[in-house]
């Protein structure tokens, strides 16, 4: 019999390990209660498998660690800055670089420069920190992602696409001069890590060019998006991830980057732009909020690790194994009948809490409740991406997003296939006892980005 199955596998081997603590159900019950049923408030030593986020949680390579030893910790003009600048220009194709301590540092500077009071910022689904910085700069975010993205069951291959009709309507209603830029993310996080297609990007570029509107790219997970283009879009099968990433960026005017994801570092980010005027202002402003323009809140060694990490992130074998592991977990969960967002995205599995716990109303926080229950079962830490994350509108009303999800985010190069099995088995056990699970009430709510620090009580 012919066997044509080709499993994904990691293009690396393990050189050093970090030991984990195993906890008992009683220990987890106590820890979760003390954390106010918010997985962000757990101590990491009480967690067995940490799927809270893929942000800053990747394992660096031996090359990156050796790069750390080459840190030039000069206050000004560190050689690591110039290395990073060259890599950003060569790999990503943007002209000017401003390093920042992480993604939101870049969002803050960009929003302050480009947004004026009353401006509208259309985007392919909100992201928590991105929208907050737009609002703090007196702008208003408008969602222009295609409707399919709000439906967990819809299997459209490019659920990150911009709905150009929605964008045209906004331009007509407000006028192009009220839209400083379109906020376009690759691998749309809140939709489940869903990609945007190259075709849609080209159309977006053509429309925005006509109206002289910038496109600013949230390129936090651009390589993962490039992988889906390579796998799913006609004409891209023979292109490398590197080529696809550069083409994506070529349809945009600048980018904010949280290098803690795709770029395989534990800290760091940047703003990259093509306009000299925006660069000049950003280079001045970074001094106020982050640090001098040749380090932006980072140590020289952090910039070196980032420069090397960017190179590794666009390697075809790396990205195939990275997304392959995520798909492996998603398929396991589906075998157990656990309802997840489809198609499977690039950085994690998003469980549909509305479908998992249909008896819990959205104002009783089904996803928050489910994340707590998942932890209690086997010590797997996940994150709520639903009504708590969505926060409140300017008038104080809660947003009630269609998507009420629990994100099982996979750190890059960290966990094994056996870990994936343990995670899926744990999710299945919780699914089996789903009818006995009750919702929660919020007992503490901070003003900004409440999901990080809110506390809950079981009903
Ligand atoms: N994302 C994540 O876990 C970390 C904090 S929010 C829970 O998904 C995008 C698409 C992100 C992102 C962070 C940021 C902000 C911007 N855009 O965390 O400031 O996913 O580096 O980046 C998180 P920083």
Net shape: globular
CATH class of the largest domain, named: Alpha Beta
The helix/strand order is HEHHEHEHEHEHEHHEEHHHEHHEEHEHEE
What's the overall average pLDDT, rounded? 97
Structural class: alpha/beta
Report the CATH architecture of the largest domain. 3-Layer(aba) Sandwich
Oligomer: single chain
Task: Kindly report the name of the CATH homologous superfamily of the largest domain.
Answer: Type I PLP-dependent aspartate aminotransferase-like (Major domain)
How would you describe this protein?
There is one protein chain. Helices cover 40% and strands 13% of the residues. It has 459 residues and is α/β, with parallel strands linked by helices. The protein folds into two domains: 25-54 and 316-458, Alpha-Beta Complex (Aspartate Aminotransferase, domain 1); 62-313, Type I PLP-dependent aspartate aminotransferase-like (Major domain) (Aspartate Aminotransferase, domain 2, 3-Layer(aba) Sandwich), CATH 3.40.640. A five-stranded mixed beta sheet has the order 2-8-7-6-5, sandwiched between helices. It has a three-stranded antiparallel beta sheet with strand order 9-12-11. It has a two-stranded parallel sheet with strand order 1-10. Helix 5 links the parallel strand 3 (120-123) and strand 4 (140-143). Helix 3 (79-92) runs parallel beside helix 11. The longest helix has 20 residues, at 316-335. The termini are far apart. The model has no long low-confidence stretch (mean pLDDT 97). Ligand PM9 binds next to helix 4 and helix 5.
């Amino acid at each position: 019999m012919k066997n044509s199955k080709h499993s994904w596998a990691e293009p690396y081997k393990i050189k050093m390990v970090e030991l984990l603590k195993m906890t008992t159900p009683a220990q987890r019950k106590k820890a979760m209660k003390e954390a106010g049923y918010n997985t962000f408030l757990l101590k990491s030593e009480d967690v067995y498998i940490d799927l809270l986020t893929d942000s800053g949680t990747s394992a660096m390579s031996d090359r990156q660690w050796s790069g750390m030893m080459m840190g030039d910790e000069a206050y000004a003009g560190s050689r690591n800055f110039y290395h990073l600048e060259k890599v950003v220009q060569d790999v990503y194709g943007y002209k000017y670089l401003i390093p920042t301590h992480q993604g939101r540092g870049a969002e803050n500077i960009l929003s302050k420069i480009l947004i004026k009071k009353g401006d509208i910022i259309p985007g392919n689904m909100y992201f928590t920190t991105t929208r907050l910085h737009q609002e703090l700069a007196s702008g208003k975010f408008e969602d222009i992602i295609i409707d399919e993205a709000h439906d967990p069951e819809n299997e459209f291959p490019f659920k990150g696409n911009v709905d150009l009709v929605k964008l045209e309507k906004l331009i007509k209603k407000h006028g192009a001069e009220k839209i400083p830029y379109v906020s376009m993310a690759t691998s749309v996080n809140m939709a489940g890590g869903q990609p945007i297609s190259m075709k849609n990007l080209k159309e977006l570029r053509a429309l925005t060019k006509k109206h002289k509107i910038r496109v600013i790219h949230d390129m936090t997970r651009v390589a993962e998006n490039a992988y889906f283009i390579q796998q799913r879009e006609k004409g891209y099968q023979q292109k490398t991830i590197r080529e696809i990433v550069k083409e994506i960026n070529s349809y945009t005017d600048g980018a904010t980057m949280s290098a803690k994801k795709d770029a395989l570092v534990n800290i760091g980010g940047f703003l990259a732009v093509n306009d000299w005027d925006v660069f000049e202002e950003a280079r001045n402003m970074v001094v106020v909020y982050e640090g001098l323009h040749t380090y932006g809140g980072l140590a020289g060694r952090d910039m070196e690790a980032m420069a090397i990490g960017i190179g590794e992130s666009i390697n075809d074998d790396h990205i195939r194994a990275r997304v392959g592991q995520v798909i492996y977990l998603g398929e396991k969960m589906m075998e157990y009948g656990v309802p997840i967002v489809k198609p499977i995205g690039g950085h994690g599995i998003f469980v549909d809490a509305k479908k998992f716990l249909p008896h819990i109303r959205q104002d009783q926080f089904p996803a928050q409740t489910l994340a707590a229950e998942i932890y209690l079962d086997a010590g797997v830490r996940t994150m709520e991406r639903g009504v708590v994350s969505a926060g409140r509108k300017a008038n104080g009303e809660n947003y009630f997003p269609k998507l009420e999800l629990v994100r099982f985010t996979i750190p890059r190069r960290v966990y094994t296939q056996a870990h994936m099995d343990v995670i899926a088995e744990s999710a299945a056990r919780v699914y089996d006892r789903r009818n006995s699970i009750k919702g929660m009430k919020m007992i503490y709510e901070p003003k900004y980005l409440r999901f990080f620090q809110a506390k809950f009580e079981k009903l």
